[in-house]
Design a protein that fits this description.
Two copies of one chain form a homodimer. The first copy, chain A, is an alpha/beta fold. The first copy, chain A, folds into two domains: 172 residues, Rossmann fold (3-Layer(aba) Sandwich), CATH 3.40.50.720; 88 residues, 6-phosphogluconate dehydrogenase C-terminal like domain (6-phosphogluconate dehydrogenase C-terminal fold, Orthogonal Bundle), CATH 1.10.3660. The first copy, chain A, has twelve helices and nine strands. Chain A has a six-stranded parallel sheet. In chain A, helix 6 links the parallel strand 8 and strand 9. The two termini of chain A are 32 Å apart.
């Protein structure tokens, strides 16, 4: 009952996101052939061992040869070099897509390397866990999550729709958005929360030895959740912050102002201000629950 | 096979923590009689309907009469008035304990109201969820968590041990700590993380309407976890910040400095600094996992 959407799909990089998508493709037979290009021998071996792909290579040009769909799944800082290297080997009519968490900078880095007759469809699935690598993926990761497409002006509608259909098969809902707006929304919903988690866990690592070991021991008081977020892939996140600089700094500015206000309220013993904020934030949680976005993804191993 | 540890236990306030402890007491028959004192008719009715207690009242003096153990489970801002009201009705040899998240301010507010011959054992179980009220509790909440006792100098060792034994029956591990040190550790592991979560969710609520609705829609990118933390009980948390002011402000100062450093690194495109921090924070997560404190509590209804 295989319903082949693409003859050959090539993954450039195959970590948490790429391998989760590959699992869906294999499970439902959505491609005749799946290939992964990865830099390390370890990743290539895992991708084969897990039966995520038919073939592996470290040669980008070879990987994309004859591919109908190429999906960039490396950290976004590598996109420019990667697409430059594949440019001459893409077949006419092929589609290049990605899963990067920033869209304006990605479009700038990639679009110039896409030859005439090849279609570029920038994508971002809003899903993930703190784990990395091909063995961290699972085929239900995208179920009931949003997948945002930020089309480049003038892109072939059929190409966009073919990519959208692939993602619908993962169980995600498709949303179309302007790339700059995407970057602003993601700065608030994802990038700044990660930066804050990294900061607070970083502050804890700088504590004197005894205090640090107690912070770990008593992490169940709230710190635990921050350590989870701050365990996300370091290179992927370095690239996100470097490539969404303006929106992240703008949001961080607002946050710092608000934090200053709370600091003053605590210093002045102003309980009413604190309580009224805490009541308001509780309502946002209610909205997130109503929107069905409150349940964290459940990897099958229950990690 | 009931193993009665106390003849009568009285809960003053019975929310998430109190009702979870009451469930263990009832499940294992650890008290002959359990009573709850609650301000609202709704809470009293729930406590009875859920069979958490034998009796309910809104009269503190009546609630503590003949009790061998009285456990304060209200927001800590109410402790001073509550213990003043019960002072004349406590029976000689009774133990007063609590579950508050701050210990120095609690000892100052409570100790003066404890009559001679009554023992005060300040406690803090490091466990919880974002939900509140007697129906939010569950009997496994404390399993494999820490319960910190911050003994007041000169307190009867037997009284401390009786309280410790009750908590051991919940599955928690007992730790003894100096109250000031407790407040410092909790400022880092719990209070500042909650304050940051409240701030970031608050910043999002102030966004223009369209952006706010998108933040909720795409919360799965990381924001979700902050909304969960920022849904915690407003009055309980107001009281925590007001009563652990110094440690919270000190920690917040360190955090703000570190955040400034990261902000500069992003502005200057300093990827190496970002990456090296993100690698360090990942190691802390590993330590939290090794310490077995990484798994969030699982309420039986799976909420």
């Amino acid at each position: 009952m295989a319903d082949v959407l693409f003859k050959k799909i090539s993954f450039i990089g195959i970590g948490l996101i790429g391998s989760s998508l590959a699992r869906v493709i294999r499970r439902d037979g959505l491609a005749k052939e799946v290939v992964a290009c990865a830099r390390t021998e370890e990743t290539r071996k895992k991708a084969l061992d897990l039966n995520l792909v038919d073939n592996v290579t470290d040669n980008i040009a070879l990987a994309v040869k004859d591919a109908e769909l190429v999906i960039l799944c490396t950290p976004i800082g590598a996109y420019e070099a990667v697409t430059k290297n594949m440019s001459g080997s893409l077949k006419p009519g092929a589609i290049v897509s990605d899963v990067g968490s920033v869209k304006r900078a990605v479009i700038e880095a990639v679009a110039k390397n896409i030859p005439k007759g090849v279609h570029f469809v920038p994508c971002h699935p809003i899903a993930g866990t703190e784990n990395s690598g091909p063995d961290a993926g699972f085929d239900t990761l995208f179920e009931d999550r949003w997948m945002i497409i930020t089309p480049v002006k003038g892109t072939d509608e059929t190409a966009i729709e073919r990519v959208a259909e692939l993602w619908r098969r993962t169980g995600s809902n498709i949303e179309y958005m302007d790339p700059d707006h995407h970057d602003q929304v993601l700065a608030i919903t994802s990038h700044v929360p990660h930066l804050i988690a990294y900061t607070i866990v970083g502050t804890a690592t700088d504590l004197e030895e005894r205090l640090r070991s107690e912070v770990i021991k008593f992490a169940a008081g709230g710190f635990r959740d921050f350590t989870r977020i701050a365990a996300s892939d370091p290179i992927m996140w370095r690239d996100i912050f470097l490539n969404n600089k303006d929106a992240v700094l703008e949001m961080l500015g607002r946050l710092t102002e608000d934090l200053g206000g709370l600091q003053r309220a605590i210093r002045n013993g102003d309980g009413d201000s604190l309580q009224s904020l805490f009541v308001r934030t509780r309502e946002i949680r209610r909205s997130v629950i109503e929107a069905g976005q409150h349940i964290p993804p459940k990897p099958p191993n229950g990690a």
